[in-house]
Design goal:
Blueprint lengths: L8 E3 L2 E3 L4 H12 L25 E3 L2 H13 L4 E6 L5 H13 L2 E6 L19 H11 L3 E3 L3 H4 L18 H4 L3 H15 L4 E5 L3 H13 L5 E5 L19 H6 L1 H15 L4 H14 L3 E8 L16 E9 L2 E9 L6
Parallel strand pairs: 3-6, 4-5, 4-7, 5-6, 7-8
Antiparallel strand pairs: 1-2, 9-10, 10-11
Helix pairs in contact: 7-8, 10-11
Bound molecules: adenosine monophosphate (AMP).
The site of adenosine monophosphate has 17 residues, from helix 3 and strand 7.
């Protein structure tokens, strides 16, 4: 029977497909395991690449193999850096990889489109997977390992553990995308266990994600340092994102409103405007470009709680999220006063 994409929906705390999340993951894995598929075929395997794309970096899909090689390198005193990604790599990812290569002896980049962080109806199936191009880019950047696990490698049959980072997960992206941060925290912890690096690199582009990962690392005493690098933008200010390929030319122009709203927020912040006024202005800027706004807020960068005033607040971050057609984009900016610049 030809493979049919499964419909996911959410029941209580897990995705279900007929029976359970496990059924879904197993189904995904059966489709994916051990098969090399072309990069544009139905996107279940994360391990589909042609051998000529993998020349210098070691492409590994077996977690145990990666783990033993990482431990071996560390036993020789080598410092290992790790950049977790979902692939469809762009300059934002490359900036993290370059930083890791510059600061570490060996670098792992994982490419894994993690099913558990996609809510039902989201773009898991159509998420871009140009694996050959990704491997070529990573080879040119000098990474040592490219980890491309199949779904079953990380979500083994019978597995039943999920990581919940309460508090910062509940708001903003967490409120909009049911189960998203549980999926993120779970896969990041799994990846850290399989690839026990000394330091991991994340992008400020996903600001809330960095808060959650840091919280998890602190709460669970994970022996890994988290480094966050600034958002890389296109020349017109649009934050680079693997999802930008979904935008039509017109939507791509409209997407500038995200960055414009954040620049405007910073100007207002410096002038002493209230978080409410800033939020309202960001909303208006986005709406003028026909962005359907999910949220536009000024928050405390640690708790992610809404700020009520800009007096005596050492740090603040503006977060925006919205949709252009079917495509959902997020962006953020730390709000700095002239003194903090
Ligand atoms: P993703 O493949 O979208 O899961 O992203 C992998 C990592 O790259 C995450 O830590 C992201 O925050 C980071 N990243 C994505 N886009 C950018 C960007 N434009 N600038 C900097 N980092 C980014």
């Amino acid at each position: 029977m030809p493979w049919q994409p499964l419909r996911l929906w959410r029941s209580r705390d897990c995705f279900v497909c007929g029976e359970s999340e496990k059924t879904l993951l197993t189904a995904l894995s059966k489709k994916a395991s051990g098969k090399i598929m072309s990069s544009n075929s139905f996107p279940l395997s994360n391990a589909s690449y042609s051998s000529d794309a993998a020349s210098t970096a070691k492409v590994v899909s077996d977690g145990a193999v990666l783990r033993s090689q990482v431990c071996e390198a560390q036993a020789l005193g080598r410092r290992v850096g790790f950049v977790p990604t979902m692939g469809a790599l762009h300059e934002g990812h490359a900036s993290l990889v370059r930083a890791a290569v510059a600061e570490c002896d060996d670098v792992i980049v994982s490419i894994f489109v993690n099913p558990t962080q996609f809510a039902p109806g989201e773009d898991f199936q159509r998420y871009p997977r140009p694996i050959d191009a990704d491997i070529r880019l990573l080879n040119s950047l000098g990474v040592r390992w490219i980890f491309v696990p199949g779904v079953l490698e990380l979500y083994r049959t019978g597995e039943s553990t999920r990581v919940e980072v309460h508090g910062p997960s509940a708001r903003w992206e967490g409120a909009m995308r049911a189960g998203h941060f549980s999926g993120v925290a779970t896969v990041v912890l799994k990846l850290f266990m399989v690839a026990p690096a000394n330091v991991a690199y994340f992008g400020a582009k996903d600001f809330q994600q960095t808060v959650i990962v840091r919280q998890m690392v602190a709460d669970l005493f994970l022996p890994i340092r988290i480094v966050v690098h600034p958002t890389v933008r296109e020349a017109d200010g649009v934050a680079m994102s693997s999802r930008n390929v979904y935008l039509s030319p017109q939507q791509r122009v409209q997407a500038r409103a995200f960055h414009e709203s954040l620049c405007c927020a910073e100007r207002l912040w410096r002038d002493g405007a209230s978080p409410d006024l800033i939020a309202q202005t960001m909303c208006e800027t986005l709406s003028r470009s026909q962005v359907v706004v999910d949220y536009a807020v000024v928050v405390d960068p640690e708790t992610l709680e809404l700020l009520e005033t800009n007096c005596h607040v050492p740090r603040a971050v503006a977060l925006v999220a919205g949709r252009l057609g079917q495509t959902r984009l997020i962006d953020n900016r730390e709000l700095l006063t002239n003194d903090q610049k």
